[in-house]
């Protein structure tokens, strides 16, 4: 945990904890920050009074991941299950648990002493010779060109299956599927990657356009007594611990002064221990560079830590090419929008009830356009407004946990669609008169995009 102050004012916090952001299942179609996003939202919004659309001076609460490669928030070890059977409630509960512990630690924070420093090196992870002191058998080994294993396509039992017919622990790929993919893995590479059931040798397909990364940024940052190991992937609990131990030993600092910051600077799927790799579960199949991927990371991070401790310059290696201008997009455009017959954009298709009790849910529908016409950054698709002294005041928007916005295409040929807005009315909602407002944009046949607003009639909460 890092606590930040500007003068006498609290400005923010960073709290690290290892768990996947997969409380909400892969069948969800809503934009959601999952459990860690809820923790950030609740601290900023509920405890610090931040209102994102009001541009008020803010408090920033961040909940980054560490080595969460095999840590699931789904406590019943199946997608969307645990502590409850409601995936959204699970995200809230798991987020709240992280928040509660973070705030407890935050209150006991002490000043950080020491300077700020860092070292970074780009490493060709497909061609690392790993010295004996870092390998489990005390022999020299090498990493391999990247290969995606068959068990990668299985997904994980606890966080969500992926493709049928693929299972965790697969060591023999399904021949008909491999034949359909028409990707051959040379025998020397299959041997290097053993016991992985090689599915796609991405490292051999990257000559024209990279499929998976080859040169990765490895970094260690020093912030006072805290040392962050910036790792470009998802390290398992055990593999992250081994990296931390290696770095702590080289720096000569206690283990609790070293944290692994996962998903940092680049992304190269998972990193398991050699023992976990042998099991070829989802994480092992997703460990790209073979059985000795983790020992290679340990060796390279040890080299970086030695430079940081000694204060010496470090050869950064070859910086990979900037591929940002060559990325593919599979987003489709919007042809045109039309309102339902006899309706205008923003018209109410389903009206609210006349009154609601606190703890109930209000659901309304509007005639709308495609949300891709304007994704409303810094704005909102919806408002819950309360009548105060004759003036409508926004109390909630689409960034609040209690509200959802769902878009549905009613007819692709005519271009009609609807927006469904739900409001789960919290138990502490102020009684009064309310309405729900929808903001949208519609595109005509000539390509012109026009904004519109619609509002329901009034209803009471009490």
Topology:
Elements: E1 2-6, E2 9-14, H1 34-47, E3 60-62, H2 87-107, E4 116-124, E5 129-130, E6 141-142, E7 148-149, E8 155-156, E9 160-161, H3 175-181, H4 187-193, E10 198-200, E11 215-223, E12 226-230, E13 234-235, H5 237-251, E14 258-261, E15 270-271, H6 274-279, H7 282-285, H8 293-310, E16 348-350, E17 355-356, E18 361-368, E19 382-388, E20 391-397, E21 403-411, E22 416-424, E23 432-443, E24 449-455, E25 459-461
Parallel strand pairs: 2-3, 12-14, 13-15, 17-25
Antiparallel strand pairs: 1-2, 4-11, 5-6, 7-10, 8-9, 11-12, 16-18, 18-22, 19-20, 19-23, 21-22, 23-24, 23-25
Helix pairs in contact: 1-2, 5-8
Overview of this protein structure:
This protein has 462 residues and is an alpha+beta fold. It has three domains: 2-108; 116-310, no CATH class; 347-461, Neutral/alkaline non-lysosomal ceramidase, C-terminal domain (Immunoglobulin-like, Sandwich). The protein has helices spanning 34-47, 87-107, 175-181, 187-193, 237-251, 274-279, 282-285, 293-310, and strands spanning 2-6, 9-14, 60-62, 116-124, 129-130, 141-142, 148-149, 155-156, 160-161, 198-200, 215-223, 226-230, 234-235, 258-261, 270-271, 348-350, 355-356, 361-368, 382-388, 391-397, 403-411, 416-424, 432-443, 449-455, 459-461. Strands 17, 19, 20, 23, 24 and 25 form a six-stranded mixed beta sheet that branches. The protein has a four-stranded mixed beta sheet with strand order 4-11-12-14, covered by helices on one side. The chain is globular, with a radius of gyration of 26 Å. The two termini are 41 Å apart. The model has no long low-confidence stretch (mean pLDDT 94).
